[in-house]
Amino acid sequence: MSPPDERSPDTLVRATSTTPIAVAESTGFDTLLDALTYRADEYLSVCHQRGDEFRSAVMAPGAAPRYAVELGSGADMWFGVNPTSGPVREGGGRGRSEDVTRLAALFCDLDVKPNACPDFDTAERIIDGISSVLGQRPSVVVFSGHGLQPYWPVDDGDITDMFTTADAATLLSRFGRLVGRVADEHKVKCDAVFDLARVLRVPGTVNHKSTPVSVTARSDLGGPLTVAEADERLTEVGIAAEAVDIGSQALVSPSADWVFADQTCSYVAAIVDGLATDAPTSGRNPWACSQAVRLCCAWRLGCITREDFGRAVTALETRLSTLLATTEPRRGLRRYELRDVLALGQQRAERKSEDEARAELGGHRHMGSADDFWGTGTEPSINGAGIEPDPPADERPAYAGLLLTRSALRSLPEPEPLIDDVLDQGTCAVLYGYRGSLKSFTAFDWGASVATGRPWQGRRTVQRRALYVAAEGAHGYPGRADAWEIGWQRQISDGALDVLPRPVNLMVPAEVSELAALIEWGSYGFVILDTLARCMVGGDENSSRDMGTVVDRLYHLLDKTPDRRGVILGVHHTGKDGKTLRGSSALDAGVDTVYAAVREGSTVTLSREKRKDGPEPDRHALALDPIPGTGSCTLKAVHEGVSAPGETPERSAQLRLIVSQHFVSTGATGAELRRLAVDDGGMSRASYYRALSDLLQFGYLVNTGTDSRPFYKVNDE
């Protein structure tokens, strides 16, 4: 990519201020940008405010220090810590989190004011504590005028398929939790905003928030961290990756408004009583987080006393410590682990609706108090371990009604396809491939075909409502949907294909229940989780137990599709070899269907590696077919000896656009098509005939007339 034009920002500079506060020519901004390793081909967002006027701009990093000096001291000025998407512009927004192209640093904003850091010494001690955990001092510390803003640069934070925007947001969110835990030790409440698009003060400018104060910067001793180092050091102190970015959810019920009960509810007493023997069905940390959410919901709903809440926390700590010491991999309770779990529980409880909070407690209304529960040793749980007693010997077992006789077996329906000879109804499937193998394009193509009933690559498709869980965000999907509709001339109606633009953690039962309820509510017959890795945060892909749990949850979701005749598809990655399915073999063994996508040049080969019922072999050669005006593509079949659609000349795209604009529903004679393309469209006759030949070869057009009197129509198959 060529560097952005550094001259363009000059046109953004407005008259400098006449305020008497001087700004040095050397602002220190360039030093900070160097520490953040801004490159010439990246873009930097800058915002400023003069009076009530707030303006934003995006520019080349080399132009930003000059821009700050020319803007002058009469304006407050901020910059985006992380590079954003171009182009150079004034106005049009400074960029959102999904526009960030690199995680440049871990950073925080430590305000020195009442109800925050009482003084700068405390802020410095918090920086020392964070540095102790990270094993690295910050590289730069900015004095914002009313606080300190330290930066720990990240060496390899470029947004790629292997380190996604969601991964970067998760790492920054985890760092924010570390800041919160260290601040807690100093009895300080600090800024809780850790957003990828966050803007902070520009050194060398002036903070006009109250009395004008210069913003300055100092170099510190630290060097850059790698993503792996930051992840490892956060994990070491018990700040693990979590599926829910609570920062993106609205606050519903602030904990400051919660009131403890006078007496603990008997339902909650039973929950707490079961902590000592509860056995998690998923990972230990997700289990602890789930328990913390329930306890905090009990506090929010007035179901537990202050004293019993404290005792419940102790019981949770004891049980978590026991689980960590007695189950693999064995370890001790980490430094901030319980405190972080409780903070997450509180933050999630604050963001739940009233009904969601009650659902954490079984949807109950108060069931009476547990008088002196803790003092008397009352045992509200059954058998002390939450296990129901055996039914009486003369009672018919519940499973007896599920037995299938030989006659019943004969009457079972035959497997029916969702996409003929590709995906069978009532199954769970996996589509996997290396990055760039078009696995997400294929999954979306399947989803759109099912949602509209359009045949996929000539295979009959049963129309069902589709749900696409875009766990890595929905940023690219508007263009992808536009391209699909134009390319195949089929409209995806509202409600036919819905996109959920966030991950759902299959390791967290509460989230699985929410997704199951959504599937049942929407009667979705095709559900795509893209990717499985983003939908099992906190789980170990190499663990047969964790992957077995994921498979079990996929089938639970399948049960919620209409008549259990839907399909649940997980999109996954290859391992380090770039060829085999990543993680435990429990995934491959557990699902019904497995497809692999392998890219060679511009062509992707889609091959079925497993099919539980029916013939296994199935193979497709596919390639991207660019759709003009959408910035995206469709998938077209590639036949031997024919170029991939992605390799077609511009002439083919031009002729295809003419067809889509004028003849998509009616078709056209050869003379009509040639008139618009050559006489009106400016194509040469040679280019026109080559483009027409290309579109016929690729199967986009078919001649339904004769060689002497052709009539061309869009091929709907």
Write a structural description.
It comes from Mycolicibacterium litorale. This is AAA domain-containing protein. InterPro entries: P-loop_NTPase (IPR027417). It holds the Pfam family AAA_25. The strands form six sheets. Strands 17-16-18-19-15-20-21-22-23 form a nine-stranded mixed β-sheet, sandwiched between helices. Helix 4 packs across helix 5 and helix 18 packs across helix 20. The chain is flat. The chain has 20 helices and 26 strands. The chain has four domains: 229 residues, 2-Layer Sandwich (Alpha-Beta Plaits); 130 residues, no CATH class; 221 residues, Rossmann fold (3-Layer(aba) Sandwich), CATH 3.40.50; 67 residues, Winged helix-like DNA-binding domain superfamily/Winged helix DNA-binding domain (Arc Repressor Mutant, subunit A, Orthogonal Bundle), CATH 1.10.10.10. The N terminus is likely disordered. The chain has 717 residues and is an alpha+beta fold.
Keywords:
717 residues, alpha+beta, Alpha-Beta Plaits, Rossmann fold, 4 domains, nine-stranded mixed sheet, 33% helix, P-loop_NTPase, AAA domain-containing protein
